[in-house]
Design a protein that fits this description.
The longest helix has 25 residues. The relative contact order is 0.11. By secondary structure, this protein is mostly helical. The protein contains eight helices and no strands. Helix content is 80%, strand content 0%.
Length: 186
Amino acid sequence: MIRGGLEGRAQTAPERLRVDADAALGQTTDAVVAREAMVQSRAQQAAPLYQQAYATPFNMTDAQRNILQAPAGRAAFAKAQRLAQNEGIPLNADALDVRGVDLVKRSLDDQIEVAKRAGRGNEARVLTQMKDRFVKDAPQAYKDALDAFSGPSQIIDALDQGQSLFSRNVPAGQIEIGRAACRGRE
């Protein structure tokens, strides 16, 4: 009788453990589904702010014009023009509106990402500073839209990096250094 009771208890142990773990930690979620939900939520929350920003009157500053004259600025504007043409919207370098500022900023973001992936940290730093100066003179409504979008973006980026950790043949020593750094923040 005791042996039968122990065997029955052993058979139900995994389910009891799952229920207890869910109660303590919350239910498990599919990372892909959770990421997609975050992406959709971010877009829904930021969209009205971007539309409001795009409708805001704006006059380009001399600082922004100077940035567009730099080699990276010219490249970013050329890409922004292609994007605008593909979206069927006008883009004029002499009278850039907030939508144009956003397209140039996104093009600079792409250049920054390429530089980072290629290991060109100094170039990425210079481009980031250029982008920050370019956006600094944008209307507050645009900056608010960027903030609404970037908060969830940081979480999504962290999730993406976490998922790819073990698919990149990361040495165990590097993981241990990261764990030690995280412990130092506690």
